[in-house]
Amino acid sequence: VQLVESGGGSVQAGGSLRLSCTASGFTLDRYTIGWFRQAPGKERETVACISGNDNSAYYLDSVKGRFTISRDATKNTVYLQMNSLKPEDTAVYYCAARSVTAVTYDYWGQGTQVTVSS
């Protein structure tokens, strides 16, 4: 069982990136998937998540209207489309999966760095 993030990189403010979270060993569409980020010296925060029950989405207030989480079951992948990036979005981004009945995330990826320069 493994989650692998990709798509991070360095962009200028106002730019876009699309992060991917691909699973192996289990089917993502039956899980709630969350994207998290952690910047140096700061606590980890939940950026977005998509429900394994009904695909409803949650977003951190500071990313609403800029980020979109989506699921492609055919590719066993969840995406985080990030537009209008700001320097304060700079962090390591992680995806994680939990079953719909669980309260904690069971599987975590290794993280991908996103750096936004002003």
Report the average pLDDT across residues: 96
Structure summary, number of beta strands: 11
Structural class: mainly beta
Determine the number of helices (DSSP H or I, runs of at least 4 residues). Answer: 0
- Report the major sheet: 7 strands, mixed
In what range is the share of β-strand residues? over 45%
Q: What does the radius of gyration come to?
A: 13 Å
Classify the helix fraction into a percent range: under 10%
Low-pLDDT sequence parts: none
N-C termini distance: 38 Å
Shape: globular
The ordered H/E elements are: EEEEEEEEEEE
Overview of this structure, please?
The chain is mainly β. It is built from no helices and eleven strands. Strands 2, 4, 5, 6, 9, 10 and 11 form a seven-stranded mixed sheet that branches. The model has no long low-confidence stretch (mean pLDDT 96).
Secondary structure topology:
Layout: E1 2-6, E2 9-12, E3 17-24, E4 31-38, E5 45-50, E6 57-59, E7 67-72, E8 77-82, E9 91-99, E10 107-108, E11 112-117
Parallel strand pairs: 2-11
Antiparallel strand pairs: 1-3, 3-8, 4-5, 4-9, 5-6, 7-8, 9-10, 9-11
Please supply descriptive tags for the structure shown above.
single chain; 11 strands; 118 residues; mainly beta; four-stranded antiparallel beta sheet; seven-stranded mixed beta sheet
